[in-house]
Structures are given as C-alpha cells and as structure tokens.
Amino acid sequence: MGDRLAAALLHHRRRAGLTQEALSERSGVSVRTIRAIESGNRPNPQLASVRQLVTALDLPPHTQSELLAAATGAPEQVSPVPRQLPPDVVGFVGRADELGRLDAMLDSVDREQSAVVISAVAGTAGVGKTTLALHWAHRTADRFPDGQLYVNLRGFDARGAMVEAAEAVRGFLDALGVPPRRVPVGIDAQVGLYRSLVADRHMLVMLDNARDADQVRPLLPGTAGCVVVVTSRNHLASLVATHNAHLLPLDLLTVADAELLLARRLGRGRWRRSPAR
Ligand SMILES: Nc1ncnc2c1ncn2[C@@H]1O[C@H](COP(=O)(O)OP(=O)(O)OP(=O)(O)O)[C@@H](O)[C@H]1O
Ligand SMILES: [Mg+2]
C-alpha cells in the first residue's frame, strides 16, 4: 500500500515540476513527511496530509481518488475503460488517402502536446463520413488505452431529434463511471467534470453527425491527450479557426471503389450480370 502511494506521489510531484521543498511549501506538509511517503517509509500517513498534497498538486478528480485510495489501503479503483464505438462497417472499401490523413493527424498528437487534436470529417449526406471515421477509430483502437467515447449527435436527423450537448455529456459521464447521484446539476459543472475525468487520459472521442461547431464545443476535452473526430455535413469552419481542427473534406467514393462496394453488397455474380454493365 505504501509502495503504491509512494510511486504515485513521486510521479505526480515530478510531473508537476515540483521539488519536495516546493511541494511542501505549497501544501503545508513538511518535507520530512513528503520524503517519508515517497520512500515508502510512511505506509499510513495521515489522510489530511494526503488531501493537502493532492490539492496542492491540482490533480484531476479520478487521480485524487486514486491517491486517497492508495493512502487508505482501499483496493485500487478500477475505473471503467469505455468502449462505446458502434461496430465497424462490414466490407469497408477504399478511402486509403483519407485513412492516411487521419493517421498523420494522429501522429501530430505527439507534436501538438498543448492542444486537443481534432479532425473534422465533412461532406455531403451519405458520402461515408461516419463509416470512414468509425473504420479508422477501430483501426487505431490500440493507440487509445483509456478507451473511446462515442455519441451520435443526430444533427441532421429527419425527425428533428438532435442530441443536446448536455445529454451527450451526461452519456459520457455515465460511460466514465460517474454514478447518477454524483452528476452535478447544471451543464457547466457537468462539462467541467467530464473535462477533469478525461484530462489525464488517452482517449478517442468520436462526435458523429454533428450539426455545427456549437453542438460540438462543450464536448471537446480541455487538455491534450485525447483525440477528437467529428463528422458533419457542415464544414465546421469555426472549429478550424478556434481549435485548429484538421478539416478532412470527403468526396464520393471513386468509381472503382463504388463498383467494388456494389459488387460486395449484391454479390459479385449478380453485379456482373446486371444489364447496366
Ligand atoms: N468506404 C465505405 N465502405 C463501405 N461502405 C460504405 C463506405 N462509405 C459508405 N458506406 C456505406 O454507405 C452508407 C452511408 O454511409 P455513412 O452513414 O457513413 O454516410 P454519412 O456521410 O455519415 O451520412 P450522413 O450525412 O447521413 O451522416 C452506409 O450504409 C455505409 O455502410
Ligand atoms: Mg454520418
């Protein structure tokens, strides 16, 4: 138990760029105590001291709970790893260039450490935006050890059933293991909690079928580490301007790919016998 706390405190103090002395000054906990905890010589420190340290390190809520659990010897919290992606499309065809561009966007994550990296897949109705984004998300699942969040925002639903950002955030909180009684009242607090929970994680967030940038904005994580893929019939130009989103305009499948898709869907024999050929 002491080892777990020791390792966690050392990790988070160094990550915050603080010496033991600086953390002591900031938290009011003596250097001796910090040193003892970090060396594993104080397996049962006073919980109040750990709270002071956690506050001084300004850690997101789930990391705070992990440290406090380590200090009390509570079993390690298994926070759920959400896997919300709908299934990949069977018989995906083409889009090699676009998949390559999405991969390149992912590689830029390491370079753009200070920003949430967003890719906005835009194009006309039914052109294959959702299918492309989903296929790519499945292909790259192993790059996101903390899982994937997905919401269909229904921005262009013919029945007008657009999903409000507040509803989407509550869905994400649920997927992140927040019990309903702990969901704060009010959209701002809910968004704040959502952003704190994803702050330390490497997750893919897929915001599918968005109407516009306003619907998307509250669902964007606040810090780097997460990658967001938005699909929309609109070009989401303001997201490009405000969040430096990488825009990926999607055109129709090439004729060869469309034929391949039809052949797969209809069965190769039927497609060949078609009078249109
Ligand atoms: N690359 C592809 N390979 C195989 N099937 C595809 C591909 N692209 C699109 N499809 C098929 O085309 C249909 C429409 O695609 P999709 O739902 O992705 O379009 P969309 O651009 O997201 O549409 P909307 O604007 O309504 O959101 C789906 O049934 C999907 O299976
Ligand atoms: Mg779609």
Automatic annotation (TrEMBL):
Classification via SUPFAM superfamilies: lambda repressor-like DNA-binding domains, P-loop containing nucleoside triphosphate hydrolases
Protein name in the entry: Helix-turn-helix domain-containing protein
GO MF, one example: DNA binding
InterPro entries: Cro/C1-type_HTH, Lambda_DNA-bd_dom_sf, P-loop_NTPase
Domain HTH cro/C1-type, residue spans: 9-64
PROSITE patterns xref list: HTH_CROC1
Highest taxon above the source species: Bacteria
Pfam families referenced in this protein's UniProt entry, alphabetically: HTH_31
